[in-house]
Structure formats: C-alpha cells, structure tokens
Write a structure and sequence with these properties.
2 domains, alpha/beta, 22% strand, binds zinc ion, 11 helices, seven-stranded mixed sheet, Quinone Oxidoreductase, Chain A, domain 1, Rossmann fold, disordered N terminus
Length: 404
C-alpha cells in the first residue's frame, strides 16, 4: 500500500472527524453549503395577516460591501413570535419574523472582517444575530424598546422593506451594517438555536447573584418547568449548584427537570393549599426552606405562593412575566418585611450575557445535560403556520423551524 503524506493527512482528518462528530441525532451541523451556488431567488415565510404566514419568493438582494448573506439553517419559535402571530401586538404585519435563528455565511462584503466580539468571519462560518446593539454593550432590551426597536437591525422584528430577507424564518438572511453578529461555528445546530432563550437565563442568574445570597451550596427552588425553568436549572447546574427542587404541575416536565439537574421535584397538584405545598418544598430540602427561588411561570398565583418557599433572609428572582399576566397579591408584612427577602426582577439580557451563553452551552453539554431534548418539535419552513399553532397549543417545549 502506497502511503504518501497526502494519504496520511486524509487518514488523520478522518480520525479527527470521527472523534468530534459525536453529537446527538438531529443536532449535527448541516454539511457546509458555502461552495454551493447561491440561487437567484429564495423564500421567506411572511406573516401577511393574523394567524397566516405565506411562503413568498423574492430575488436575493445584492450583497453590499458591509453586508453578510447567510443561508438559514434553523430558527426557534419564541413566545413573542406566537403572540405576534396570534394578535399582531407589535403592529409589524407584513413581517418576516424569527430572531432565534442561525445559519452559514455564503457571501460577505469586502469590508466585513470580524464579528461583534472581534472574532474573524469567513465564508462557511456559522453565525447568530443578537437583538442588542453592539454599539452599547450595557444596553438591555428594556432600554432598546425605548429607543425604538423598529429603527434598529433587529432581525425578526424589522417590518418588510425592499430587502425582504429581514427575519430568520426564511431560506436566506441579509445581515446589514450595524448589526450584532457572532461567529458560533463551534456550536452545533440545536445549541445555536437555543442561544437566545438560554441568554435570558444566563442573565437571570447574573441578576440573582447581585443579591449576594445565591451561592454554590444554596438550596434553590425553581418554580415552573417550561423551557425557561428547565434552562434555569441547567444554568444553575453549570455553576455548581446541586441542591435544586423543581416545582410544577406536570409529571413529565418534572421528570425532565431532574434530567436537567434538579435533585428533587414537587408536583403542586398533589397538595391542597399553599401551607401544604410550602411544607413539601421544605421537606424536599430536608426540613429547610429555600435560600433562593426562581419564579419561572407567568401565573400571578405562582408569584404569590413563592415567598412561602423562601427562608428568612433569602432571595427571589422573578422572571416569569414576559407579558402582563395581571396583578399578584402578597402580604408585604409576612412575605417581604418580616422575612427580609431580597427580590430582583430579570428581563431579557445584555450583550455580555449573550456572549457568556456560548460557553454556558458548551459546559452544559460537557456535564451531560440533555439540552438538545429541549427542542421537542421541528418543522420545515413551509409548515410554519402549523409550527406556530403547535406552540400556541403549548405542546412540547421548544419548537423550531429547521431548513433541510
Ligand atoms: Zn426569543
């Protein structure tokens, strides 16, 4: 057998590919498409009226010197996408939604050299965009709203214009100058789709740490085991917190919470009245109340209840109310003053949290947390209406559009 140096290179490459290609089924990155010719036209899923996306085909725009053309691989459906689909509260129709997307660079203007973190960008790199401006790293989504989201290159919230490729629910996205873009080629497809929701929890845990109460050995209760609560548990586990009790009303979700790293679970449906429920939480910690609590549901009653799970001098992070869920009743004397509870609210994320999230996802995989399983349903672009209806029916956890 004639083994020259070229053959050896090939063998080494194959062995290395075999070593690194161990990602779960469905989560592997799509093969590079950078070499494939770019078509003249491409599809977008445009929300043309409430509860109705239409697949439309447009000519791909020219790629300017400061632009990046991305072939979309996939995009998660956010709760806000579902709200916009149902009621158009943001008044964006007609619009191409999708802000939890990722894809591969297939064309770049000559001025584009680096991403928003200063990392090199090349053809074939996998990227995500972020809703936060790179010009001001400390700005949060909350401030951004005040500064008019519509004026920024926030992909998935840009109303339709002559470009059309403005959101990630599409075959291609044109990333324009001034956008926040990150090279995340070292993450697999499902991890990249999960970056945006995970950043929400990385931020919440950062907010919780500002109380000085949350430590590696804290007893922590996480109430609500939808995607937000489950990712919250995962973030806590990657920072070394072991003593976690998950609270929810669905056995299936509580089971998943344990896979994500919760030590114990409490099903609130098994307890009559808040006193008994609080007792169950206390028993889960061996007769102690929680040092810290994360409230991850959008239910006002859940907010009222959670104070009863927290010890004197403990802390609370409230992050469940992405939309107005109504008023919650608490007793300020018993719930806050007499117990000296420190409370923080958390909302979306900062740019710094976004970058930190890339490493969180690697750590989560490294310690064996089944992050991929959070994506329970995938749909092709042409089934986007059904994908949103599935989301609105609250079936599964995270739902994503995956382009094949
Ligand atoms: Zn989102």
């Amino acid at each position: 057998m004639d083994i020259n140096s070229k053959n050896i290179e090939d063998i080494v490459r194959k062995v290395l590919e075999g070593m690194t290609g161990g990602s779960a089924a469905g989560a592997a990155s799509a093969p590079s498409t950078a070499a494939a010719p770019i078509p003249k036209t491409a599809r977008v899923a445009m929300l043309v009226e409430k509860e109705k996306y239409e697949i439309k085909e447009f000519p791909l725009p020219p790629v300017g010197d400061d632009d990046i053309l991305v072939k979309v691989e996939g995009c998660g459906i956010c709760g806000t996408d579902a709200h916009e689909f149902k009621r158009d509260p943001f008044n964006l129709i007609p619009v191409v939604l999708g802000h939890e997307g990722t894809g591969e660079i297939v064309k770049m203007g000559k001025n584009v050299k680096k991403d928003s973190a200063g990392k090199d960008l090349h053809l074939g790199d996998k990227v995500v965009t972020c809703m936060i401006f790179k010009d001001n790293p400390d700005i949060t989504m909350f401030d951004l709203n005040k500064q008019n989201v519509g004026g920024a290159d926030v992909y998935g919230l840009l109303p339709d214009d002559d470009i059309h490729f403005n959101g990630w629910f599409s075959d291609y996205l044109l990333i324009r100058k001034g956008s926040t873009v990150f090279n995340v080629s070292d993450l697999d497809l499902y991890s990249r789709v999960l970056i945006e929701p995970c950043a929400v929890l990385v931020h919440a845990v950062e907010r919780a740490k500002t109380t000085g109460i949350l430590r590696f050995n804290s007893r922590v209760v996480v109430q609500g085991c939808g995607p937000i609560g489950l990712i919250c548990i995962a973030v806590l586990r990657t920072m070394g917190i072991q003593n976690i009790t998950a609270v929810d009303g669905e056995e299936k979700r509580l089971e998943f919470a344990k896979q994500m790293g919760a030590d114990r679970s409490v099903n609130f449906k098994q307890y009559q009245g808040i006193e008994n429920l609080a007792k169950a939480v206390e028993e889960s910690f061996g007769g102690h109340l929680a040092d810290f609590a994360f409230q991850c549901t959008g239910s006002p009653i859940a907010h009222s209840n959670i104070y009863k799970f927290i010890r004197n001098g403990g802390g609370l992070c409230e992050l469940g109310f992405f939309i107005n869920g109504g008023d919650a009743t608490i007793n300020p004397h018993f719930d806050i003053c007499a117990k000296e509870i420190t409370t923080v609210g958390s909302w979306v994320y900062t740019l710094r949290d976004y970058a930190t999230t890339f490493d969180f996802l690697k750590r989560a995989k490294g310690i064996g947390l089944p992050m991929d399983k959070l994506i329970t349903h995938t749909f092709p672009l042409e089934e986007i209406n059904e994908a949103h209806r599935t989301n609105l029916r609250m079936e599964g956890l995270k739902i994503a559009i995956i382009n094949r």
